[in-house]
Amino acid sequence: MGDLDIVEFADNPDPRCPCVLLLDTSSSMEGQPIGALNEGLRVFQADIQNDALAQRRSEIALVTFGNGGVRVLDYASGDLVPASRGNLPTQSFTIARDFHAPTLTADGYTPMGEAIHVALDLIQSRKTEYKRNGVAYYRPWVFMVTDGLPTDSWSGGALRVHEEVRLGGVVFFAVGVPPEADFELLAQITTPERPPVELHALHFSEMFAWLSQSQKRASAGAVGGQVALPPISGWGSVPL
Amino acid sequence: MSGRAGWLALGASVAGTAHVDYGRGCEDRFHIKYLQDTGIALVVADGAGSAVAGAEGADAATRGVAKYLQDFAHVTSPASVAQWLETLKAIIAAARSAVEDEFTLTSGGDNPEATRDSPDNDMGNGDAPGLGDLATTLIVVIARAGWIGVSQIGDGCVVARTVTGEIQAIGHPEASVHVNETRFLTDADYKEHARYFVCPAQNFNGIAVLSDGLQFLAYDMKTQSPFAPFFCPLFEFAARLGATEAELEAFLRSPRVCARTTDDKTLVLAVRSKVGKPK
After folding, report:
1. pTM summary value
2. How far does the CA of residue A70 sit from the closest CA of chain B (Å)?
3. Is A8 within the bounds of a domain?
4. Residue of B nearest to A130 (CA)
5. Distance from C-alpha of B75 to C-alpha of B129, rounded to nearest angstrom
6. What is the pLDDT of residues B52-95, one digit of tens each?
7. Which CATH number fits the domain that encloses residue A121?
8. ipTM of this predicted complex?
9. CB contact under 8 A, B50 and A134
10. What sections of chain A are H helices per DSSP?
11. Is the CB of A228 less than 8 angstroms away from the CB of B125?
12. For chains A and B, what is the number of CB pairs under 8 angstroms?
């Protein structure tokens, strides 16, 4: 095979798969739920970092809504910083290899509507960066986890999710944590082909392991078009 | 350079490491057909990994084209761009028809193969069971009687070597926003997204057809152009006396290729040859 040893490969930047973790840290998450969520984030980090391709290709942003309003993990400082539409940290995505799971605390209200806008804005600006730099990308993901009702106006956010999904610009998942999560409301934010999922018994770790597996599949390029995702039965089910 | 030189072709398809991890075999298919009057046809179909029966779709599409080519081999070659376009459209139609027949044959109310995962198991991929279960892309390249004709739907690419050794893309590459999202032969609007290309063959002495698993190795993504140092040695290899498909397959399986892509990989190479069709 000597003559095929000299075949050279083009040096392209890795295609990227941006994934926004959109997490409810309101007061109802205090105690066991936030503890389990934090453990889940550590599981996510460990799992995605053991995959050679996914750790280079998946890019993670983290948005919380709860204490301190809407906050985004700023990778420049390593802190969660307040954010809003038009006010986003410049380093809001990192490749999975460099992601360090923060320890979140719970308190405050649930500005879910604003948080959805911030998540979509982050994706928008990331795509602009990719295009500017000739970097190919997979369809971005938003993965929202909430255990309660939004305390702000959310219909604008929902409309925007629907429009983005319709245009094929984003994949939007919502997970509701019982007992307070309102699945009928969440179903108005998600789209019919991807209804909200009910988390079983604080199985955050299993959920985040699923998310990591799904990211691996999406960023592996092994599956085209709609990604074939693993079954959710290990941690959740669709209640509606 | 002999005016009557025929073509010699080699092809290989290897399952992507990710496909193997998820318990799926290779979902790419390829086919080479030597035509009378020293022509040749190259076919590559890439079954969608996300479809429950992508491999079957790629099989059916390839069979449909192979059957069309059997008849095509016995009729006079198209002699104008207009005639070529007719042929190229008919090829897509034949492939589509074969996939539809396969779906009709294998689907049905009591056929478990046709059942989609319930929403409880699969976080909402949501499409109703249907032809999309057999989703596949398709590329067909025919070099015959001084012409090259290309029919394409979906991703993958066709690259040619000129008689002066330059490498250039032929056909129309797909413009997709997201990596790894593509059109399929099974889409409802497939006719609108099929692309056709016709050119004189005399300038070219090598043709390569690749499925998208090799795209990041073979193309400069920023300039959207084929990477010559990938293709030149491959064409040289194909022209070498005694080059085998086993060697090509070993290349596609090699660690350095697999380190760069976990997708299925198909590569078909054709070069002009005085030796002509293998026995």
Report:
1. 0.83
2. 27
3. no
4. B222
5. 39
6. 889 999 999 999 999 999 999 899 999 999 999 999 999 999 99
7. 3.40.50.410
8. 0.87
9. no
10. 32-48, 54-57, 112-132, 155-166, 183-189, 204-220
11. yes
12. 147
